[in-house]
Specification:
heterodimer; A: alpha/beta; Rossmann fold; Alpha-Beta Plaits; 2 domains; four-stranded antiparallel β-sheet; 10 helices; 14 strands; about 30% strand; B: mainly alpha; two-stranded antiparallel ribbon; 2 strands; about 75% helix; binds adenosine-5'-diphosphate; binds magnesium ion
Chain lengths: ~300, ~260
């Protein structure tokens, strides 16, 4: 199976000299539900802007379903549906016109465009509002309108930039359900968010981006497991043997008198002591190593607040 | 995109453009009809009768072609400048930029939108003029070709203005300080014969002179400049404006960050 999105060494320097992306690489598999998590200003929207051509990249390579955007941007664009962070439709136009016109820009014949517009406006609960000038719609409706507009050409890859920002909790849930359904039907989804909770509820894989760099790229499960793991540094009285094993735990010999032990949620530190006792190793002191991920999250949350 | 898809995209843009100016017809169509009626009343009927003949025609007959052309120029220009700037301003231009629609289709769509408004207003103004004078067309061919070329040229000019505009002031500066003077000095109200040689020479640098005179030839059969020269100049300006517009779109100037 070919990847839905491949980004290699992508960098972006804005006109004013600001370096927004410092050579990021990531890959999203077909069918995945992928989160890009990061605080404000991390470079999420910049990345998405480059993928869908609203931002010119400085260097690097982007491929959508193995179509290089530098070689055949039109073909790549057909695969993508984009829901931007800010409202970007004419608020004097009606919802129905906006969606039908978007279909036209993808070359869908008028009749088909109408059918699709009806299908997606209904799916997003906007059909009753189809003839209302869009400036009269609520924030949540406007955001759903942008989702309908992004889906009208039935893209294989749907990209949403902070789709639930400013959307109330109830609406957020129903939007989550809708996205899960679309994903189950085969659409690859990438969304950006600064809520870990949202990524956890929806996504299988995640990239964490901060200050223009990818600091994590893994599965959500793996990430959560590592978030809940604590690492203790033990100073030992005796000189340690070349290799130390503690059953059920991951232990690492740092130097002749120092040991590192990982303790997962649900495990007891007592067990570590018992085991070491049996091996004749005595602990003089102990501290826990700063959890890099956790620190990062504290920063992320502060950044987002 | 296949040709069929490109045609769909083009007709979508054109339809949207036409719908836009029809929806706000009191701002887009009505002002020209009123202004031109006033011109006809004042210059044609009230003052015109005192002026006597101009270029071998009654003054009314002489000014009508120029005034129709003035309506075409201002309407095709302002349609594109306000519509494209508006879509930049509310970011809805991104709807087109993220789509596979090629740049020349985007440009063509806006230009056809501008042309259609120029033509529609021309028809309205022509009908109004029939209340004041009878119109006899000397050459339909020249009339149609000149109207098409001129509205294309000024739609493109409006597009270029919109690309560079940062605010609503920027889209009225050029029409007020450049376009209107060029139109007034382009021989709408007088024949070049009235000018001293020096100013007649300077006038030949003004594209509107060619536009107004070629159109007057099409209607009345007289012109201050030679017809092939007029066609050549308008054609040249149009090609340059088109090439520059395409360059702006392809390089993403002021559109992509
Ligand atoms: N047009 C621009 N010119 C200069 N800097 C920009 C521009 N757009 C965004 N930036 C900067 O680039 C950084 C990344 O922005 P963005 O990609 O929008 O972040 P995010 O979406 O993760 O919040 C921010 O520091 C922002 O200020
Ligand atoms: Mg953003």
């Amino acid at each position: 199976m070919i990847p839905a999105l491949t980004i290699e060494n992508l960098s972006k320097v804005y006109g004013d000299g600001f370096v927004a992306l410092k050579g990021i690489s990531l890959e999203v598999q077909q069918g995945d539900f992928f989160a890009m998590l990061g605080p404000n200003g991390a470079g999420k929207s910049t990345t998405i802007g480059i993928i869908c051509s609203l931002v010119a990249k400085t260097a690097g390579k982007v491929s959508v379903f193995e179509v290089d955007i530098d070689k055949d941007f039109a073909a790549a664009k057909k695969y993508i549906g984009i829901v931007p962070q800010e409202f970007n439709f004419n608020q004097f136009e009606k919802a129905l016109d906006i969606v039908i016109n978007q279909a036209g820009y993808y070359g869908l014949p008028r009749e088909l465009a109408r059918e699709r517009a009806e299908k997606y406006l209904k799916a997003l609960g906007l059909w009753e509002k189809r003839d209302v000038p869009t400036r009269m719609l609520s924030g949540g409706m406007k955001r759903r309108l942008m989702i309908a507009r992004a889906l009208v050409h039935e893209p294989k890859l749907l990209i949403l930039d902070e789709p639930t920002a400013g959307v109330d909790i109830e609406m957020r849930r129903s939007m989550w359900d809708f996205l899960k359904k679309i994903n189950a039907q085969g659409t690859t989804i990438i969304l950006t968010t600064h809520y870990l909770e949202e990524a956890e509820a929806l996504c299988r894989h995640i990239a964490i981006i901060n200050k223009g760099e990818i600091v994590e790229h893994s599965s959500i499960k793996d990430l959560l497991r590592r978030l809940q793991r604590e690492v203790f540094i033990l100073d030992c009285l005796e000189e340690l043997p070349e290799s130390v094993t503690i059953s059920d735990f991951v232990a690492r010999r740092v130097d002749s008198h120092t040991l590192e032990v990982e303790v997962e949620k649900g495990q007891y530190i007592n067990q570590v002591f018992d085991e070491l006792d049996r091996q004749g190793i005595h602990i003089s002191s102990m501290r826990n190593r700063a959890n890099r991920l956790e620190e990062m999250f504290v920063n992320l949350v502060e950044g987002a607040a | 995109m296949t040709l069929a898809e490109q045609y769909v995209a083009l007709s979508t843009i054109v339809r949207k453009e036409i719908k836009r100016y029809l929806r706000i017809w009191t701002q887009t169509l009505l002002p020209s009809a009123i202004t031109m009626s006033l011109y006809f009343v004042i210059f044609g009927t009230l003052i015109g009768s005192r002026i006597g003949e101009m270029g071998g025609f009654t003054y009314m007959q002489f000014v009508v072609p120029g005034l129709i052309m003035m309506a075409i120029v201002t309407n095709s220009y302002s349609n594109v400048v306000s519509s494209f700037f508006g879509s930049k301003f509310n970011n809805s231009v991104e709807e087109l930029l993220v789509s596979p629609t090629p740049n020349y289709i985007i440009l063509l769509g806006y230009v056809i939108g501008g042309i259609s408004r120029g033509m529609l207003v021309a028809v309205v103004v022509t009908i109004v003029s029939l209340f004041f004078t009878h119109l006899h067309i000397h050459s339909y061919f020249v009339v149609v070709v000149i109207v098409l070329m001129t509205s294309t040229l000024f739609a493109l000019a409006g597009f270029i203005n919109a690309v560079f505009a940062n605010n609503f002031d920027d889209i009225s500066i050029i029409p007020t300080f450049v376009l209107t003077p060029l139109i007034y000095l382009g021989g709408v109200f007088y024949s070049m014969e009235l000018l001293p040689d020096f100013w007649a020479g300077v006038s030949r640098l003004n594209p509107l002179v060619y536009v107004v005179n070629a159109f007057r030839y099409g209607v009345l059969g007289v012109s201050d400049v030679s017809l092939p020269l007029a066609f050549g100049m308008i054609g040249l300006f149009t090609v340059l404006a088109f090439a520059y517009s395409m360059h702006l779109l392809n390089s993403g100037t002021r559109l992509r960050q």
